[in-house]
Design a protein that fits this description.
By secondary structure, this protein is an alpha/beta fold. The protein has 2 domains: about 160 residues, Rossmann fold; about 120 residues, TPP-binding domain (Rossmann fold, 3-Layer(aba) Sandwich). About 25% of the residues lie in helices and about 25% in strands. It is built from 8 helices and 17 strands. The strands form 4 sheets. A 7-stranded parallel beta sheet has the order 7-11-6-1-4-5-12, sandwiched between helices. The chain has a 5-stranded parallel beta sheet with strand order 14-13-15-16-17. β8 and β9 form a beta hairpin. The radius of gyration is 22 Å and the shape is elongated. Bound molecules: flavin-adenine dinucleotide. Flavin-adenine dinucleotide (FAD) binds next to α6, α7, β16 and α8.
Length: about 300
């Protein structure tokens, strides 16, 4: 199988997710080449062919030009799979390309086996297996699902398709002002999941966090329910954290959450379901009711 990996560059820097695409291809023994719109002098750690279009000319966001450029690389490589990150760029570009080529789009891939892709469904509660009926397929890979591989020196081929009149104009990035907690610097994080049941119960985790001298994190449903503000969210659409200690309280361990905390040094998980996926990354897995266990733990720590 042959893959064309669609890398990403943002503000002149190669996005880390680009290397997860490489990791995916390597993990499943696929031959690969890469396409990217980036600065001509970008340092890309990849041991293969890179079709590079100059971001000074084609901008980091210009879907009309990028689609044409990607299709040029597809013509040259004739890949079985055209692979994007499941990012805002991937969501946008993958389906434009799939529609143009009339091939199957498969989004949020978290695993692969013999031509079959595993993707989440039912709000990530279940997984299903899908197999494209077309001979090519366009994929987006879920962030954090595959280990990045960043090594080697590429053979660069510059792509230039002349001027393409854009239907949208890329002006600039707007950086969201950081308010609330900066979890990226925290050494200890006590993180709250939907399993705590209601907003009032977060007092238990707050007290534990204070006792340990840590910060309060959260899964997305906790933020969506407005129990805590967005600055607490850990995961693909929240912060990526790497504390020495991460205490996951009533968190199932969905892939989007794990992507944000899997670099934690030591993980303690408290969950009443012994089969919860968080158990796979936990160093200590406590099977208990979080609202009973956490106050007892805090009390013990205070008296220690
Ligand atoms: C595009 C996209 C981006 C996303 N980004 C993020 C993100 O950045 N961060 C994120 O967290 N999620 C993200 N999600 C959502 C993610 O898929 C999960 O839905 C979410 O992480 C689940 O949160 P949770 O573990 O708190 O809730 P649930 O999955 O509902 O899990 C609750 C857990 O609590 C346990 N539990 C219940 N009651 C108790 C109790 N009394 N005591 C102990 N345990 C109990 C249950 O057994 C269960 O394991 C994203 C989803 C999508 C589609």
């Amino acid at each position: 199988m042959k893959a064309l990996l669609i890398g990403e560059s943002k503000q002149g820097k190669i996005e880390d997710s680009t290397y997860e695409l490489v990791g995916f291809a390597k993990q499943f023994g696929m031959e690969s080449a890469m396409f990217i719109v980036a600065k001509n002098d970008s340092q890309i750690a990849y041991d293969g062919k890179v079709y590079l279009a100059d971001s000074d000319k084609y901008k980091e966001y210009n879907p009309d030009a990028h689609k044409k450029l990607i299709e040029e690389a597809i013509n040259k490589e004739n890949p079985d799979y055209i692979i994007f990150s499941h990012s805002s760029y991937g969501w946008d570009m993958a389906f434009r390309v799939a529609a143009d080529l009339k091939v199957a789009p498969i989004s949020e891939v978290v695993d692969y086996k013999d031509g079959t892709f595993v993707v989440p469904c039912c709000n990530s509660k279940f997984r299903r297996e899908v197999k494209p009926k077309t001979d090519k397929a366009v994929l987006t890979l879920q962030g954090g699902a595959f280990n990045p591989v960043a090594e080697g020196t590429p053979q660069i081929e510059t792509l230039d398709i002349g001027d393409v009149e854009p239907s949208v104009e890329f002006i600039d990035y707007e950086v969201q002002e950081k308010t609330g907690v900066d979890l990226t610097k925290a050494e200890i994080i006590v993180s709250v999941g939907r399993g705590v049941g209601k907003k009032e119960n977060i007092e238990f985790e707050k007290e534990l966090a204070e006792t340990l001298g840590g910060e309060l994190g959260a899964s997305r449903p906790v933020v969506d329910s407005e129990w805590l503000d967005q600055s607490h969210q850990v995961g693909t659409t929240g912060q990526t954290v790497a504390p020495k200690l991460y205490v996951a309280c009533g968190i199932s361990g969905a892939i989007q959450h794990l992507a944000g905390m899997k670099k934690s040094g030591f993980v303690v998980a408290i969950n009443k379901d012994k089969d919860a996926p968080i158990g796979e990354v936990a160093d200590v897995f406590v099977v208990a009711d979080v609202n009973e266990f956490v106050p007892i733990l805090t009390k013990k720590l205070k008296s220690a």
